[in-house]
Amino acid sequence: MIQKDNPCPCCSGKTYAECCKRLHEGTLAKDALELMRSRYTAYALNLPDYIIATTHPGSPHYSENKFSWKRSLSKFSSASQFHKLKILDFKERKSLATVTFTAYVSEDSHDSTFTEKSTFEKIGSRWLYRNGLLQEGHTPNLVTNGQLRLLPLAYYGDAVLRRKADPIAEITEDLKKLIEEMIETMDASDGLGIAAPQIHHSIRLFVIRTPIESKDGEIEHGEVKVFINPKLSLPSEKTWKTAEGCLSIPGLREQVERPKEITVEYTTLDGAVLKERFFGWEARVIMHENDHINGVLFIDRVEAKQRLKLDPVLSALEKRLRDGRAL
Ligand SMILES: [Zn+2]
Ligand SMILES: [Zn+2]
Question: How many angstroms is it from 20 CA to the middle of ligand 1?
Answer without folding.
Answer: 4
